[in-house]
Fold:
Amino acid sequence: MVRRREVVIGPDRRLRVTLEVERGKLRSWAVQLEWWDPEEGRFVWVARYDTSGGRVHRDRNRIASHEPVDLPEDPGEAAKVAERELSLKAEEYIEAYRAAKAQGR
Structure:
């Protein structure tokens, strides 16, 4: 079963959380920071932590993909830490995305 939720963390930013649960156990997850890009007139993904490919990693739009990260082994705890980290550092991630976009990356 896939559980999805959206967490609004500001007027122009949100988190999308996806948890895939099988037989009561968390199998995979993703936490994605999205920002309303006024130039594009839509939300764009800025940074994401997920378990695709079997390992926890971070992707940053226009900057880097599959960056290794140090998160708790427990998938539930790791997802919570990722959600907290993206919330607390949202402005930093958004500014890095905007700078990369301005450079044409």
